[in-house]
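Researcher: Please generate the 3D structure of the following complex. Treat every line as part of one assembly.
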Amino acid sequence: MIELDRISRGFQVGDQLVQALREVSLAINAGEFVSIMGPSGSGKSTLLNLLGLLDRPNSGIYRLDGADVTGLDDAAAATVRREKIGFVFQFFHLVPRLTAAGNVALPLLLAGMAPSERKAKVARLLADVGLSARAEHLPSQLSGGQLQRIAIARAMSMNPALLLADEPTGNLDRATGREVLALLEDLNRRGTTLILVTHDQEIGARAKRHIAMEDGRVVGDTHPSPAGGGEMP
Amino acid sequence: MTLADTVSLAWGSLAHQPRRTLLIALAMSIGVGAVVVLTALGEGSRRYVLEQFASLGTHLLIVLPGRAETTGASPGVLSGQTTRDLTLADADAVTRLRGVARAAPLNVGVAQVSRGGLSREAVLLGSTADMLEIRHMRLGQGRYLPAGPSDQATPVCVLGESIRAELFGAGNALGEWVRIGDRRFRVIGILATQGQQMGFNTDETVAIPVAAAQQLFNTESLFRILVEARSRAAVPAVKESVLALLKARHDGEADVTVITQDAVLATFDRILTALTLAVAGIAAISLGVAGVLIMNVMLVSVAQRRSEIGLLKALGAPAASVRRLFLAEAGLIAVLGAVGGLILGLAASFVLGRLYPALPIAPPLWAMAAAVATALVAALLFAWLPARRAAKLDAALALARR
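Model: Done. Output below.
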């Protein structure tokens, strides 16, 4: 599903070029549950942004579902994000003035779905994360775990094939974090490819494939089940 | 994203900051309101002046002595020649021209009018019977100046209503005698009160036969000849024939000027329309100022909502959608301001109309449309930069920050 071929990304910081990713090559198959771990500044967030088409590499090729998405223009990249990729963030990023239902509906609204159809779909999505009763609550009236579940419902609203989660449990206590992770694992079991960036060893260990990063390079790629995707150095 | 969704999302964000939204909308309202009120005033004075002219009759030609245009006379031929005066005979000749319905000579002066111990200064109009029709005046009592040869100095007069009231009070005036200058005149008519008419308050005038006025002022010449053409279409032809006639009567010297009512009307119309436009333009500057205010507030808003913008982009909003969202916010503010401004402007125009009932104050439709359009264009124009900044925001960077 995902193929990265010698992807490099550098940032100009002052007069110094910081190399966040150095020729990263990676293949991830549909339906995998991958954790990306590594110290701060190892390039894992940059990698996630590139995978989500929020950033572009300086060199290398990124293929998503067989199509080269490296050089897509803004509108085309937005379409791919809308239709194929869901995001879950550490800080939830819910729009504070919109209700839970309003937040979940955002991607559908951006996709131009008719209001009546949208309403039914939002109700189903909220039921899936067990928050039907909270549909009309504002984010300020909800707990951290509830906020992240709403964010997950929002990420899943367009049935994306790929779910990118950046420290999804980073702002939650351990018990709530486990609940949220269980929800993500459940989505993965139903076929969504899940890529999760985390600091947390326990959370990372739940993934079926572990990618370790350091200094812009992939330094470890453990595969418990060799039947999975391609082996990387 | 559909237009309805864009607008409702934009509206939600405006409604979330009601005070800020209302304040910018108020700035916009003041601009729109200013355009509406000022154009209402300008248009009101234009109509007032035009109505004043129309009250004189639109078929009117005014003949005055002297040439209005400069001719290249060489300094060597200063032969003591002055412009010839208009005379009563000239006026009589004009009356007989084809296409002329009626013509009236006019002499104007100020004289002391007294009766018994009461005395006051009045504007004296020396003319003939036709003056009543030509100036569209109405009689209150009695009759106007007698018809007949214009050189007959019959000692009769027609008083304006205020003069009558001051000299006679509640008593009867018709048939009484008044003294004007050093002569006595019998009152044969009273004008109905009709107030201001082209600077003359007819209520404060006294009309006497033109020959009497000439004797009183000791002059042979006329101040003006007022000519009424048979129809509006005949005005240009009458103008030509009056000029030709008077040139012939004045030994081939074209020494009179004929002003047609249409020309004066058109000139005033142009001047006052230009004035209204200028005033509207000045008022529109305040809309520009409101636009700058919108830009400022939107720039702050974009900075504050970085993570929301980043989120929208991550959820699949292309740059164009983000730009449209912010432009919609500016557009909504402008619409809000325009509606408020129209209400403000119409209310102020209504109050002004009550304060100055003589002025026909009504904001012209074009000005209201233009004010609203300018408000919208200014808002969208000034919101373009903030909207573009939002659209260009780096989503990854915006989302990374907390």
